[in-house]
Every structure is written in C-alpha cells, then in structure tokens.
Request: fold
Amino acid sequence: MAEQRGQPGRAHWIRTRSAWLRGRTATLRDAPFPRRLLAQLVHIRVLDVATRLAAQAFLTAIPVLFVLAAFMPHEVRNSVSESLRTVLGLHGASLDEIKQVLQAGGQTTTAKAFGGVGVLVTLISATSCSRVLQRLCERSWHLPHLSGRLAAWRWLAWLLVWLVGLTVQGQVRSGFGVGRGLGVFLYLVTATLLWWWTQHLLLGGRVPWLPLLPGAALTSAGLTALASGSQLYIPRSLNHSVAQFGPLGLVFTLLSWLIVVFTAITLGIGIGYVVAGQGRLARLLATPAPADEE
Reply:
C-alpha cells in the first residue's frame, strides 16, 4: 500500500519537474544572456541529443547508400563519391572502401534483392533521424510534439532533400569548378538555407521564418568550420583506422565525427532560440513570446 501511495507522488514530481524544464528558458526572456543560454543548453540536453542523432544518421546512411548504389545511375554514384571525397577530404584506402560499397551496389542482382518493398522499408527506417531532429527543434523552441499523422510527410521530405543535397555537395564545395573560396561561400549560404527550411518544416510552420534565421546561420557557420576541419582530421584518421582495423575502423571514425557534427547542429539550433529572443533582435525578427509569458 505504501508503494502504491508513493507512485502517484513520484509521477506528480516527474510531471512537475518536466514542466519546469520546458518553461525554464521561456520564463528567462528578461534574464541576462549567459543565464538564458545555460538554461537552454541544460533544457535541450546537448550531448544526449547529439549522440542519438549521430547514431540514427549512421544507421540511416549505410542502407541509404546501398539503395543509392543499387538503383541510381552510374553518374549519381560518382557524384556521391565525389561529394564524400570533397567534403571529408577522403583519399587512399578510406576512399576506396566508399567507392567499393557504391559501385558494387550497381549490379542488377543487388537491385533485385532490394526490390520495391526493400526501398520503402529503408526510407521509412531512415526517417528516424528526421524524427529525432524534429524533437530537437521542438524542444529548442519549447513547443509540444507534433503528432506523427501531421508530421510523417515532413520526415520523408526532409530525408529526400538531404539525399539530393548529398549528391551535389562535391560541386558546391568546389565552387562548381571556380575555386575553393567560392565553394566555402556557397556552402555557407546553402547550409543556412537548408537549416532555415529544416526548422520551419519540422516545426510544422508554428514559428515564423525570421526568428528561425539565427539558428540556421549559427548551424551553418558551425558546419562550415567543421567541413574545413574535417579535411585535416578525417583523411589521416580514416586511413589509419582502415589500415589497422579494416572496414570496422571506418565505422569508429565516422561515428565519432558524426557526434561532433551533430553537437554543432544541436548547439546551433538551441542557441538560435536564445539569440532570436534577445532584446532588439527579438523585436526586429518579431520573435513570438513563449506561451508562459503570454
């Protein structure tokens, strides 16, 4: 009986604490920026969300790459290889491993093995990354979860746009043959547009466009810096891991790097909310007041 009486009390404590966490940053609109920032980072659970996103992206990338290799034309497979080479600076053994996966999938028997049902299942499972990203956006903006019935098509749309972006990243990063300087600028602009649209899409249009811009710009800046840094770190680390552990080394290195990448994304979107609600910028962007303050 004592345990039964204790259960409602514990459930009430959990609900109360969850409600406090959801509204904590919202009620700090007039607090100093560092205090609001700290409250937001605690609220969105940066490392936990980044790790989940990295794991989902990694588990999604492998079957999607196989689908690309099995069904897409030879030119598209070459474009994906070029994108990975340009963005990550791959060469040597690590690039050979990626090319082997993509080129081997182009065989007719592989395509038949997947079949239409296989493609559908792969795409549905791949939306798991979209779903976690949606929760990050909602948590960052202190919004309730959008039901699957309303959000399902958004998960798939985000995934398809991401796949298209993957195939052209190599051309963007090279500035379409003009030079790396233009490539960095184009990457910064396209990444900003992509993450601006991503937030609006996954939030179900519940936040106007302008307040979402700081988060998109911060995320884009972080990813642009990491893309440049990856060309120094990834090639040596991958080639060393592949030489020492074989394909398993590729797994360890890429998963570690994905955690870093999604940490930047989580920080960019989360901090963007705080920046968009700050003083004059909040009035300029017409950032809506949190529900707790209305």
Observations:
- The CA atoms of residues 13 and 19 lie 10 Å apart.
- The chain has a mean pLDDT of 79.
- The radius of gyration is 21 Å.
- The first helix runs from residue 2 to 24.
